[in-house]
Amino acid sequence: MNEKIFRTDTKALVGSVIIGIVMLIMMQVTGRIDAILDPTLLLLNGTCWAFFTGLIVLMYRQPAGIIAGVVEAVVAMATGYSPLGFFFLFANVIGSIVYSLISSRFSMEKLSHHIIAMLGTAVTGNLCVMVGLIYVFHLDWKIALLSSSITAFVGTIVAGILTKSIYGSLQKSALLQ
Amino acid sequence: MGLSKLDPRTKLAWYVLMIYFSLISGTVVQLCLVLLAGIMASLILTGSLKQYKVVILILLFLGLQILVVQLIFCREGVLIYQWGILKIYSEALPLAITGLLKASIIVFASMQFFTSASPQEFTLMLMKFKIPYRFAMLVGLSVRFLPLMKAEYISIIDSQRTRGLRMESAWDNLKGIFPTFLPFLYRSVRRATETALAMELRGYGRTKTRTFTSNIALKPYDTVLISAMLVVIIISLTSKVLPLI
């Protein structure tokens, strides 16, 4: 089993659930702010999603990333906080797997490594959300593509920087040992 | 027959059926029929729709969001109003209604499914799908921790407010994300470590299998219902795919 991708100890499994709930709460907070500031782009929400997807994979690897994503999507569906909740399920799972695959090839010590891994995650995740925008919101595919591209671009840059900085501080704090 | 008597797998099949029809239905009439079928099923099996009262407010908010999106971006139909770059087309409202109906079915079906069974039933259902118990039991853990984590986040917000952090407007909330989120994240990581240690000390994951106080088994009516729902999906898929061949 590739240790850079998989980790199945109890700490990783429990951590995935708890950080998945943290992700859910933060997604709800940022979603509400987005609904007032930018209801069509959801930049904060997209950035928050990309950041947590990356952070959980770095902290607990797989299947923790997938579990956290499923927890977030399922509770989002059950509480009805977003009509795209069903598509979040695919976005979270695929985005997390992509982040794992990319990050396992890098040392993840440079900002460029984080940005590259985040780019793959943001693009694949936002593609799933784009399908949701087309099917549920009935948006024209060009508009949906534009909206998803902007969210993916902002998410890649901001979440990449945030992931590096916060993961670094978590490592220094010895909370992950 | 009450909802609690049905096997979680039957409820899962019903959920898949509802999601499938919400995605493939294109007209308002079709979507209304699907939503009505979901509401009727809930009414027959539970005898009440009280638990969905909270959804109405959420859906009104969602409807408003979808309407804004359609008013800004819809380019179908006839141009009925223009103000600068903002153009409103005649199809914006019908598309917003269709979008709202689809969203309503997805939200309603999700609530129906996820509130219809206990965490232990979901755990047992996952184990029937051959998922190891170490993973399946995380359902119960997430249900247990959700209110605790929410309370913890609120307590961190309150602590930061007493230190002078303003959380009144949307802008204040935006500025308040980092001072509230970082302590929340660090406390959550510490809590995860402590919980995992406590669980391991109680024997979690020591053996490959474990026993449960209850079990689930498909009854004849569950088998009939699941088969019927599968047949409906297959017929619908065939009718969609065949004209393309």
List the quaternary state of the chains.
heterodimer
Please report which band the strand proportion of chain B falls in: under 5%, 5-15%, 15-25%, 25-35%, 35-45% or over 45%. under 5%
> Please, what is the average pLDDT of chain A?
85
The largest sheet of chain B has its strands arranged as: 1-2
Strand proportion of chain A = under 5%
* Parts with pLDDT < 50 across at least 5 consecutive residues of chain A: none
State the shape of chain A: globular
* Largest sheet, strands/sense/barrel of chain A: none
Overall average residue pLDDT of chain B: 85
Number of domains of chain A: 1
Topology at a glance:
The complex is a heterodimer of chains A (177) and B (245).
Chain A: H1 10-37, H2 43-60, H3 64-79, H4 85-103, H5 111-135, H6 141-172
Helix pairs in contact in A: 1-2, 1-3, 2-3, 2-4, 2-5, 2-6, 3-4, 4-5, 5-6
Chain B: H1 8-24, H2 28-46, H3 53-73, E1 79-83, E2 86-89, H4 92-114, H5 119-128, H6 133-136, H7 138-162, H8 170-175, H9 177-201, H10 220-241
Antiparallel strand pairs in B: 1-2
Helix pairs in contact in B: 1-4, 1-10, 2-4, 3-4, 5-7, 7-9
Architecture overview:
The complex is a heterodimer of chains A (177) and B (245). With 177 residues, chain A is mainly α. Chain A is built from 6 helices and no strands. The radius of gyration of chain A is 15 Å and the shape is globular. Helix content of chain B is 70%, strand content 4%. Chain B contains 10 helices and 2 strands. Chain B has helices at residues 8-24, 28-46, 53-73, 92-114, 119-128, 133-136, 138-162, 170-175, 177-201, 220-241, and strands at 79-83, 86-89. In chain B, helix 1 packs antiparallel against helix 4, helix 1 (8-24) runs parallel beside helix 10 (220-241) and helix 2 packs parallel to helix 4 (92-114). Chain B: This is Energy-coupling factor transporter transmembrane protein EcfT. Chain B: It comes from Desulfosporosinus nitroreducens. Chain B: Keywords: Membrane, Transmembrane, Transmembrane helix.
